Amino acid sequence: MARPRFLPDNMTLCLIAVVIAASLFPVSGQAAVAFDGLTNAAIALLFFMHGAKLSREAIISGMTHWRLHLLVFACTFILFPLLGLALKPVLVPLVGDELYLGILFLCALPATVQSAIAFTSLARGNVAAAVCSAATSSLLGIFVTPLLVLLMIGAQAGESNTLDAIGKIVVQLLLPFIAGQIARRWIGDWVTRNKGWLKSVDQGSILLVVFGAFSHAVVEGIWQQVPLFQLAGLVIACCLLLALVLFIVSFLARRAGFNTEDRITILFAGSKKSLATGVPMAQVLFAGGAIGALILPLMLFHQIQLMVCAVLAERYARRPEVEAEPAAQG
């Protein structure tokens, strides 16, 4: 039987199921301590596998397109935060103070890797540049995201020392990633052959972190603190933020003189935020029940960006074949 078109993807359905399970059966006490240890191990495994999967050759091949990469990084780490701050008078009445902090956290995150590349490929964009931009954005985020979080959210981030925050990110995320890159020499072929079930390992790690985060949040009373009208407002806020970013990114790429393939890459790499990186980072940067409310905007934005970008990618894919335009490189 064909899958109904109205159903979300499997990962989104699993996220919904995990949030429901955490709401009904939250872990607490000593069980929560043990679960936190399991979650930390899952995060390390997640970034180890990212390191083992990432091809250095693919990254090097796209590095020469520096103007494209600079624009993508500016959209990811400058445009998003500025929009998040500028929209505060509109967003706070819609979602409340706590969810607004989650939107700021979302704005500070790096871009996605897999989906940005997949959509660029589907839309017949510059895939090599997408690989380079998305992967480098993910690595830069390890250092840039804590700085942005502490600048925008301040003491409410649960960290008073920027170096401490970066240090935790480096130990829990970057070191496993580097270990994966080193191990790629021996396990790279095996990882390539087993991409299918290794994707399940990635998704399982994210689901574990989400379950733990929402367990903490439920124990702290998140569903009493976040009324239904604020959840509806959050959907509107995520749609508004994504629409503005897509419009501005597209406008900037066109004004900068990039060809169609490069504009596609900039659009998909510069307008997306990473759930796979954001959830583990929230686990490191924030404490206690605050995590649930802080990752809720990211979870919603992630699903909305996937649906919208899927439509855009299919529209670009239907454009007629033409001779390649000259790339606007530096």
UniProtKB/TrEMBL annotation:
Supply the alphabetized keyword list. Answer: Membrane, Transmembrane, Transmembrane helix
**Pfam families recorded for this chain?**
SBF_like
Any transmembrane segments, and where? Answer: 39-56, 68-87, 99-120, 127-153, 165-183, 204-223, 229-253, 274-300
Query: Which top-level group of life is the source organism from?
Result: Bacteria
The protein here is known as Bile acid:sodium symporter
What organism, scientifically named, is this protein from? Halopseudomonas sabulinigri
From the broadest rank down, the organism's phylogenetic lineage runs: Bacteria, Pseudomonadati, Pseudomonadota, Gammaproteobacteria, Pseudomonadales
